[in-house]
Amino acid sequence: MFESEFMRLALAAGAIVGVLAPAVGFFLVQRRQSLVGDGIGHVAFAGVAAGILLDVSPILTALVAAVLGGVAIELLRSRGGAAGDQALAIVFYTGIALGVVLVAEAGALNVDLFQYLFGSILTITRSDLVLIAVLGAVGIAMIVLLYRAFAAVIIDEEGARVAGLPIGALNVALAALAAVTIALSMRVVGILLVAALMVLPVSAAGRIAWSMRSTLVLSTGIGLACAIAGLTISYYADLPPGGTIVLTAAGVYLVALGMSAVRGR
Amino acid sequence: MSLAVLLAGVSFGYRPGQRVLEDVNLRLGEGEFVAVAGPNGGGKTTLMRILLGLERPTAGTALLFGEPAHRYSGRRPLGYLAQRSVVGGDAPTTVREVVAAGRVMPRRIVGRRTPEDGQLVADAIERVGLAAVADAPLRTLSGGMQQRAFIAKALAARPALLVLDEPTTGVDAESQESLAELLADLHGELGVTIVYVSHEFGAVEHHVQRIVLVRRTIVFDGAPHDLPGMWHDPGHVHVRE
To answer: ipTM of this model?
Structure first.
């Protein structure tokens, strides 16, 4: 499997996304915003459609749309008076509707679009990988530097507010981080499944971890293992890579659930 | 004595026309240990939220260490124990992680934990008597122990002002007594300004120097021994009217 260039590129991209997606997803899950990834993904879909229509790189337009969508969800939630899941629903549906209209306008209801909806990790080029690696490294660095502050807000938001932490800015930073992650992960598992890679490894890790930090570290380990294992299985069994990666993660969750049940937690 | 808290002519309502608090005037000096009491629904919690800058007064001024409370810079750390503190998130967050969250300050948002943070966290855990369970997930501990973990979180910030809102809710009598002693020690040794909010005085009455009774406005402010007998149960504050 390592002889072919496309598989080496796919494994590298999968490994980066496998680590980054659950690392960012960890904070969303802890803040009970597991579905935010899905909402941003649908806005990214509108971005992809705009890219196809305007004939510019769909990854770039998706990145812009995802960041705008992520920040919009956060601002609607915190100041718009819309309760958490309503803010999400508003952005979610607007994004998918805009995407459908733009795609029809571009006459692009075809294979091109399917690459983004379901992932196309086997078509990743060297320059794609460079972009994924650079943005992935920025994302991981942000998490390392902001971990304490994000954790303080998760543990006790009101306490953090009293301490004078800039809660609004931290929330916007997390939304932007989630958006970048989604735009990157789009090529690997596809828009429809990207949120799964942000949530499933975290849920699995939460079953077997012993602290907050170990939950984060374990979830990135599980994400990495699922990306590699899923790609390997899809290569030999000739299955779609994105779906196989996510199904592997779902399998790991079931195993973790079983382990925690055995331990009586 | 410099002031930790200054409330001047503070009124507040959550809706227009509503008056939860009316013309509250309160000065708390640095190093005071004060109990704020009053009947449920009398505005104690609202008063604390204004004092901490979580709400802005509809009228009047609220200053924290000389700065407008709602824009407080965090120059002197604050410790706050909310009513029924529960750890957020689903992760099995440990006592040490909860307490370490108290070390995240406005001027050090970015970056990692320092050895000094680690030491202050360990000291705070030791002080509340949770050293043996420091690495246990908080949710596996009793309500009283969880509350002590949040007190340690507030202490780890080295607060100049510590505010506790109904800290004895759902806590057994023994824990209430040990909490009162812990607060008295903190006040005596470190000179922390402490505001203890409760609908009942309980064990803390013997340690505070000053009692403030709130029922929409301040109806009594003085030493515990000056408190009229029937008001020792603040639920009966209304008999004055």
So the answer is: 0.88
